[in-house]
Write a structure and sequence with these properties.
The protein is mainly α and 196 residues long. The chain has a domain at 62-158. The chain has helices at residues 12-15, 23-28, 35-44, 48-58, 61-75, 81-95, 99-111, 117-126, 146-161, 167-182. α3 (35-44) runs antiparallel to α4. The protein is globular and about 45 Å long.
Amino acid sequence: MSDVNRIKANTAGELTEHFELSDEAECVAVLEDAPVQVIAKLLAEEKYHDAVTMLAHALPKREAVWWVCLAVRKELGPEDKLDAACVVATELWVREPSELNRKAAKKLGDGRKKKSAAAWSATAASWCTGNMLDDDATLVAPPDFLYAHAVAAGITLAAVAAGPKQMAASYQLFMRQGFDLAAGGSGQVPEESAIL
C-alpha cells in the first residue's frame, strides 16, 4: 500500500468517533485496524460512501477540501456558472486559507443552498475554520470534522452526477485522488491507476 503519511489516525475507530458507518459497512469494518485497511475493505465491498466519508475524516482539512474540488471539477459542466464560482472560491481558500476567502466560499455555498456538489465544496471550506454565523458579534466555531461531512457529501454528489453506469468508476477515481493526497501528492492521478 502507498505510504499515507498525511493520515494521522492510527485506527479507523478514532475516525468513527466523528461519523457513523452505515449498517452494511459496520459488518465489514474492523475499527481497530488502520484507516487505510478499513477503507480498502469498504471499497472491496463497494461501500463507496462509507469509504469516502472515512477518508474525508482521515485527511487534513486543506487536503480534504482540495479532494472535493478535484471531484467536482471532474463532473462540472460548462453551463454551471454558479457551481463553477463555488469551486473557484473553494480552490482559492485551499491555496490561501484566509478568513476573507473562507467567507467568500461560505457566501457562494449558502447561495446555492447546498443543492450541488460544488456548493458542498464551498461549504466544506467554510466549515474548516472561522464563524458559522454571518453575525461577527457572536462566534460559533464549526465542530471538529464538520468539514469532512461536507467533503463526503460533495464527492458523493459528484460521483452520482456521473450517472448509474459511471458512478462506480467515478468513486474509484475519486478514491485514487484521495489516497494520492493522503500520500503527499496533488491528487492528479491517471484515470486507470490502482486505488492503493
